[in-house]
Structure formats: structure tokens, C-alpha cells
Amino acid sequence: MGKKPATGRRASAPAGSGDPSFGYRALPGVADEMVDTNGQVRPVWKQLLSSINRLSAHELSERMARADRYLRDAGVFYRAYGAQGSGERSWPISHIPVLIDDREWRGIARGLVQRANLLEAVVADIYGENRLVRDGFLPPALVASNPEFLRPLVGVKPVGGHYLHFCSFEIGRGPDGNWWVLADRTQAPSGAGFALENRVATTRAFSDIYAELHVHRLASFFGAFRDTLQTGRHSADDRIAVLTPGPANETYFEHAYIARYLGFMLLEGEDLIVVNDRVMVRTVAGLKPVSVLWRRLDAAYADPLELKQTSHIGTPGMVEALRAGSVMIVNALGSGILETRAFLAFMPTICRHLLGEDLSLPSVATWWCGQKAERAHVAENIGKMVIGPAYSRLPFFDDNGQSVLGAKLRDQAQLSIGDWLESDGAKLVGQEAVTLSTTPALVDGKLTPRPMSLRVYAARTTNGWEIMPGGFARIGSGDDVAAIAMQAGGSAADVWIVSDKPVARPTLLPAEAEFTRLMPGSLPSRAADNLFWLGRYIERAEGALRILRAWNARFAEYADPKQPLLAEVSAYLAALDIDTAAAVPESLLANIESAVYSASNIRDRFSPDGWLALNDLAKTARRFHEHVQPGDDAAHAMTVLLRKLAGFAGLVHENMYRFTGWRFLSIGRYLERGLHMTRLLGHMAGPEAPDGALDMLLEIGDNVMTHRRRYSVSTTRLTITDLLALDPLNPRSILFQLNEIHNEVEQLPNALVNGQMSPLSREAMRLHSGLAVMTPEALTAQSYRKLEQELEHLSDLLAQTYLG
Predict the structure, then answer these.
(1) What is the C-alpha separation between 639 and 775, in angstroms, rounded?
(2) Cβ neighbour number for residue 672 with a 10 Å cutoff
(3) How, if at all, do strands 265-267 and 239-243 pair?
(4) CA distance 468 to 473
(5) Nearby residues of 419 by Cβ (< 8 Å), 6 or more positions away
(6) H-helix or E-strand containing 376?
(7) pLDDT the model gives residue 342
(8) What's the Cα-to-Cα distance from 86 to each of 72, 248, 452, 603, 783, rounded to whole Å?
(9) What is the pLDDT of residue 10?
(10) How far is Cα 364 from Cα 631, in angstroms, rounded to an integer?
(11) pLDDT (average), residues 30-51
(12) How far is residue 130's CA from residue 217's CA, in Å, rounded to a whole number?
């Protein structure tokens, strides 16, 4: 009698045995990354498959969930675009990594280094002597008519002499088992940060297997590139920054992640200004020089003065700064022309001409239809072709309406292929319809072959080009190659380059050596503005929650909104655009959503835990808005939201470094809390206030117990005023807020210049001193109105001083 397998596991099957639990069958006539042409599992895959094969379905599901949970907790997303607009989507990970043997990878890496050198030579010629066009190696139309050819950059030599510093390549394996280059990425290659997150998530799922295999790490690749960029600075005071189009970009998460990972600033075009041909960043300490920009926006948008005039995300004068040689841009403006699809047709000849050798990794076969012989060839072989725009930089397998299978065109009787190619041939290319190799993906608990391509990265370092040992694989959602793009439902898998020997385990942590602690003040004004308003929106939401909780608790008791106290508070809230008819008013949601938006603009400066807590608050508030009714339910809902908000505030308070950004966030909170209490006291602490108003004020201020301990009399207007307005030890009092604002303002850059206080610092001190000498008897409704105006003026003064 056979022995029963251990609980939660099943007996393993030999690797490659066709175990039905895998359900994996390589597709006939298609190269497969896991199985060779004889149907045998490739050696590099055997240990991974053997380990997976020993897992029960439940264990495998738990591992996949572990990876998903990491990505969700880390806030990894990409922006998807559709008919209903754009929205953030969870990063679509394909959990099974793609494994490539180190020996095979070294050949791929050599071919990509050759290609990077070739692309550098081509772009240098296009913006330099232009011999390739002159000598007939590139058709003039493909350069002169190319929207990516930026004429203002002709003759402008980049700082350091190189146009390209960071490239990526789409590569795929064809049916013959050989690798092909499907597309070159030189404009603003994306995905390197996602490759890092893919690695972390996948190793969470297969930590034991990853530890046993000799998988090349990724940290050294990024460390070498970071160190190289640092050598491009003119002085130690110069900044290095990642230049992003902003939060609306589909890969904004990656921009923030890379900036945080490498320790660079994350800037938008509006953060920069060109002064005397130097690029400067607006910071709260004044203008600071930037000498290296890792550009993540398309080149044409970088300078509305000389390039795309309709750009709202660029910096006027950027091209002039390049002419002056004061800034290095990665990659150089204009290098996006290398992504032109039609260029692939001429690369083999250009490689032999410029480098004196054949391409190690051939491009997918491409024919530009602007030439007679090529047009004829495409027309004769239309059924085997993919037809697409010549100038497009999108890969041929993107299903975006710009490329179409030639067989479909041939079947449309109303369309004359020959006439079409004759009239529009200069705008079109034909490319061989390549059948991509497949790789295993976990589908419904079984390994299933799916088409894939690899995105691989190359970085210029002080030792030449270095190829990232991995990258990420784009996995199709079905057998259709067009569905390989993530916008079309595809997913992304980690790529493990596996050696048969132990590999180095580098980190980005510096070796023990001298270091320089960067001085505070490098906070961009836009980031300070978002932090300041994040503080205000959060405190504004908390103030509304506390009032609404008190109102709903009493509504549950009286069940009559016309009761004097309820009516009085409703009128006060209505003046603030808060409708008590809704348990969770729209204006409260708007404040929380505004806080989320402000935080989204500073993702590089915001902790993942804080971001998750803030998003959880927003999701809960939206759910309550749809399902909760006024009264007891609403009061309970307000308590839940207050606890979540307190959790967020606690994370920020305990974890955020006390640098300049912290001060702006804190000032925003103190200012809004001071305004909140000033308005409340001015409205509800007067002699005309209805019965119960003073007790309600104590409850809103969370000071019921404190009042009982501090005062031996019952609640009166004077005790309330003393505690909530003038007590310097009460974190809810107005005086406490003014004291904290004064202290924080004193620590801001340029608060004291040559012994003179700044206008903002002087005003903060005046407000604090003026209230500190007041007595409860002297505070009237008119005093509160004046103080409210002065607090608003203080906010305006801060904005004029630091946020403009």
C-alpha cells in the first residue's frame, strides 16, 4: 500500500514528465522558453518547476497572493486609458518568472551593447554632420519629415559628448529559437522601476527558490548608473533630478519610485526656470542649480519656447541651456528619432558602414514602402506582413489601431493594396509578422504557454554600456500577440538570469567612507505647496468629521433637525458648504480627495505606509457616503473615519523626517486647526449660543475630560474660551496652534536674514504675542472674526514667500 503524501502537499512528478497538474503543453511550431524543440524542459527551468510541482494548489495560491499583497501595499500602479477616461490600475504581474541561462544572456547582452553603440553613432550623425543621409544610407524624408527630428537641436553637442545614456530594447525569440530586436527605446524608456518591483514581488512568492538559484541581482546596474550621473554634476551643490510630466502620466509611479530609490529630486517642468542659461529649480530656499536631468517626458514638450509651443509641462529656455552646455539631459533632446519604425529597415547596412560588422541581434525584418522595390515586395507578400506607420515608435504588436495585419487588408476587396502603397508608401512600413516564443503563465492554477517579449535596459556607465541582468517580460493575455501590451490586457513577469555559479549580491548602500549630509532647503516650491495643502485638507477633514459626529449624535437623540442647537450647527456647517442632510457630505469627500491629490503629487517624498493609509481613508469615506444614514450610523461612521485619519496622522508624525517639508505640512495643519477653532468659538461661544452649545464645543475639541480636571465650575463661556482659545498646553487651542506656527516658521529658510526677521516670521510672532496677552473676557465675536482674517493673511504671506 502506498504511503499518503504529507498534508498540504502531493507527491512530486519528475520535471518535464507532463504531469497533468501542470497542464502545460508547448504550442506546435512555436519556440518555448521552458521546453526545447524535443519537448524536454530546459535545464535552467528544472529546479523552479520541481519546486512548484511539490506545492499544493492552496500553497501556490498563497504564494501568488503574497506577491499581489506586496504590490498592493507598495502602491504599485500604472495608469490605464479607456473610453471612460484614465484611472490607476494595479500592476498586472504574471507570477511565474522567465528564466534565461547566463551563457545565453551574455550573447544577448553583447548584441545589445553593439546596438546601443550603433544608435549613439546614428543620432550623433543626424544632429551632426548628417553623412548617413548625404551618402544614401538613410532616406532624407525619414529625417526631414520626422516629427521627432528637432531642428533647433542640430549642431548642439550634449554635455559629456553622448546623446544616449539610458535605453531599452524590445526583444523576442522567433520560431527558430533566435532572438530579434522588435523595437528600440531611446526617447524616455519606461519600466525600469517596475522591473525592480517585479523582482521584489516575485521573490516574495518564491523566496526559498530564489535563494537557492544563482540569480543575478539588479542593484549593481542602478548603482553604476547613479554613480555615472553624479559625475555629470558641475559642482557638489548641483542637483540631479528626474523630470516627469506629472501624476497624469501612465508610468508616474515609476518616476517617483526611481527618484526615491536613487535619491534624486522628482521635478516637473514648472519647478524649473532658466536663468542666465542655467537650469535652476525653484525651492523654498531660493533658486538652486540643476546640472543633470533624467528626462521622462517626450522631448518636444521640454521647451515650449523653441519646440512644442502648446506644451504646458516644459520649461522655457531649456534648449538655450543645452546650447550653453550647462545641463546634461538623459537622453538628449531629439534622440527619440531613433525609435522611428522605418529605421529598422536600414540598420543592418548602417551597422556595417559605421561599425564595420553585422548586427549581432538582427531587427525584425522591415521594409520601408517609400522605395519602389520594397513596395513591390510588401505588396507581393502582404499576407505575411504587418503594415504600420513609418514614423511611429510603437512596436508592431501594439493593438492600437496604428498597425494592421496585411492579411486583413488583402481580404478587404474594396482596398487596392498596390494603389495604397503607391500613394502613401513613404508613410508606411511592412514588417514580417513574427510568431513570438511562449513562456509559462499561471492560468486557472495551471501553467499555460503565453506569447512574450522582453524589455531589456542598457545604461551608460563610466565603464561603457551595462545591460540590466533581467528587465521584465510582457506576457500576452491570450494567444494573440496584440494582447501583449498592458493597455490591451497583458501582464509583466520578472526575468531571472540564472548562473551555474554563485553571483554577487550588491546593494545601493554605500561602502564605509566619507559622506556629505545634504543641507535642507532643496525642497521644490511645488512640493512645499502640496505638503502645506495636504496638511490643511487633512485638518479640514478632521474638523468636519468632529462637528458631524457631534451633530449626528444629537440628531439621533432629538430626531428633529429644527431643534435650536442642531439648527444652529446646521447653519454654521452650511456656511462651510457642508450639508448635514447627507451622512457623509460631498464636501467632506472633496477634502479627503484633495488630500489624496496633494499627496499624489509628492509620491517621491511620501512613505508607502502613509499613502496606503490615506487611500484607505478615502475608500472608506466613499463607501460610507453611499451606504450610511444620518443619526447613530453616521456618528459611528465619523468615529471610524476619525480613527483612520488619526492612524494616517500618526504614521506621518512618527515616521516623517523633520526636514523642511515636514514644517510646511505641520504649518498647514496648525493653520487649519487654528482657523477651525477660531470659527467655531466665534459662532458658538457667544452669549446668544443655544443651550448645549458649550458642551458640544468641548466634545468637538476632544476636551471634555480636560475641562473637568482643569476647572472646578460647570461649563461657562469663560472656561471654554480659556481652554479652547488661550491655553498654551492644549493641542486643540488657538494659542497652541499659533505657538507651533511661530516655532516652525522660525526654522524655515531665510526666516532670519542679516539679523532681520522676514515679514512672515514677524507676522507669526505678532499673532502669537497678541493672543497670548489676551484674557477670556476680552475675546468677543469681533475678535474671532479679526483673528480669522489674520490667519488667512498669514497663509497668503507664506504662499507669497515660499510657494510662488
Answers:
(1) 34
(2) 24
(3) parallel
(4) 13
(5) none
(6) helix 372-380
(7) 94
(8) 19, 8, 25, 19, 48
(9) 33
(10) 67
(11) 88
(12) 40
